[in-house]
Design a protein that fits this description.
- The protein is α/β, with parallel strands linked by helices and about 425 residues long.
- About 35% of the residues lie in helices and about 25% in strands.
- The strands form 4 sheets. Strands 3-6-2-1-9-11-12-10 form an 8-stranded mixed sheet, with helices on both faces.
- Aspartic acid binds near residues 9, 41, 73 and 154.
Length: about 425
């Protein structure tokens, strides 16, 4: 008997009718002869509502109480799905993170899962029950409720799959797989049958919301079979995330991802001397603020400007943190630019083929699009551009790399 972890996202459980449909998807896996453990998100919109309440009371405060409120939606869904399963004759029981427990560190709003004790869930499975686990929630060593970052119930599912040594983890969402670009902006984008773990990780980190980056990292590390598929269609095909070495078309670009979630920050006129970057990163680390695409440029004799991209939700915390150590960090001012889009081109081909960066830049130049910042690593290249250029940039790049054609067509061409 195979054991699968099935995770259902917010849209899949958005109302009672959808929950009843999900219960039938689970029943089908059981009829097929498999054991199933389930992880659920909050109903669509509920987490936003909960976070909204906290922010209205105490803006930008990230405390354990925030996590108590933010994680409430998952409790509701876990209970309701267990009820829906019982209603169609399937034995089920809901589990909140503290009941298992799912241990995390103590970082409110963005905790990391440290350890899961699988015993209770294994007992539940061996009694023939479907355990329905509330995603997103954790329990710190101090006994406080934590949450593991927005979109984190994917990571709960993979962590559960690791702890249970499951045969596969299926992430059910509202799209039928991972696309070559966002189909809302690039209508010719197509679903990919397979993607390498590293490609998927880069996509998730670059802003593709379909999977939580840490879940991919974890699946890769523990070699968990991972699929992304839709709970809204009857015979979902989905995308399977596979080992990088099995990716057929290693010489190519597989996807173009964008993010409008970030803002460019510039610390102006920092002293150009050893230790400045060290102080900056220490401050950011202490405040748990992620910064990406960090570059430094000469501003005037003896001084530099530091540019980076941060999440827009972190802007105020960034400013407060920086100004709190203004003397120590020695900058004159902070500039914030929200008119930025980050476009990332991903594919194993970037490892070896220097024609790819040239084609990216040439394609944007032909569209008259100015690139502000460039960052490249092994299998990705990110550029930042003005927001209004996003759609033409995505469309032109998608075409330049022939992502609207399938492999067979590409080989024939
Ligand atoms: N409900 C949480 C969120 O909206 C976690 C998740 O859905 O993965 O971020
Ligand atoms: Mg999600």
């Amino acid at each position: 008997m195979a054991l699968f972890v099935l995770k259902f996202g917010g849209t899949s459980v958005a109302n009672l009718a959808r929950l009843e449909h999900v219960a039938k998807v689970i029943r089908q896996e059981i009829i097929n002869g498999n054991q199933v453990a389930v992880v659920v998100s909050a109903m669509a919109g509920i987490t936003d509502q909960m976070v909204g309440y906290c922010q209205a009371l105490c803006p930008h405060e990230q405390t354990p109480e925030h996590d108590v409120v933010a994680s409430a939606g998952e409790q509701v869904t876990a209970g309701l799905l267990a009820l829906s399963l019982k209603k169609i004759g399937i034995k089920a029981r809901s589990y909140l993170s503290w009941q298992i427990p799912i241990h995390t560190d103590s970082t409110a709003t963005d905790a990391r899962i440290l350890h899961i004790n699988p015993e209770k869930i294994q007992q539940s499975l061996s009694k023939g029950e479907v355990p329905v686990i509330a995603g997103f929630q954790g329990l710190s060593r101090e006994g406080l409720i934590t949450t593991i970052g927005r979109g984190g119930s994917d990571t709960t599912a993979v962590a559960m799959a690791v702890a249970l040594k499951a045969d596969r983890c299926d992430i059910y969402t509202d799209v039928d797989g991972v696309y070559t670009a966002d189909p809302r902006l690039v209508p010719s984008a197509r679903r990919q049958d397979t993607l390498g773990y590293n490609e998927m990780f880069e996509m998730a980190s670059a802003g593709a919301k379909v999977l939580h980056p840490r879940c991919v990292e974890m699946a890769m590390k523990h070699n968990i079979r991972l699929r992304v598929l839709s709970s809204l269609t009857d015979s979902p095909k989905g995308t399977e995330i596979i080992e990088d070495k099995l990716v057929v078309d290693q010489g190519n670009v597989t996807s173009i991802v964008h993010s409008l979630q970030e803002a460019k920050v510039t610390l102006k006129n920092m002293q150009n001397q050893p230790g400045v970057a060290a102080k900056l990163y220490t401050n950011l680390g202490n405040a748990n603020i992620l910064i990406d695409m960090m570059t430094q440029s000469h501003s005037r004799e003896g001084y530099i400007d530091m540019d980076g991209m941060i999440n827009r939700n972190d802007i105020e915390r960034f400013q407060t943190t920086m100004f709190a150590s203004k003397d120590n960090l020695s900058f004159s001012d902070i500039a914030i630019d929200k008119n930025v889009a980050k476009v990332t081109v991903i594919g194993m081909g970037l490892r070896s083929n220097m024609d790819i960066p040239a084609l990216i830049c040439r394609t944007l130049a032909n569209e008259g699009i100015n690139i502000h910042m460039i960052y490249s690593s092994e299998i990705k290249m990110s550029v930042t551009i003005n927001q209004q250029s996003l759609k033409p940039a995505l469309t032109a790049l998608h075409k330049a790399f022939a992502l609207d054609q399938n492999y067979i067509e590409k080989e024939v061409a």
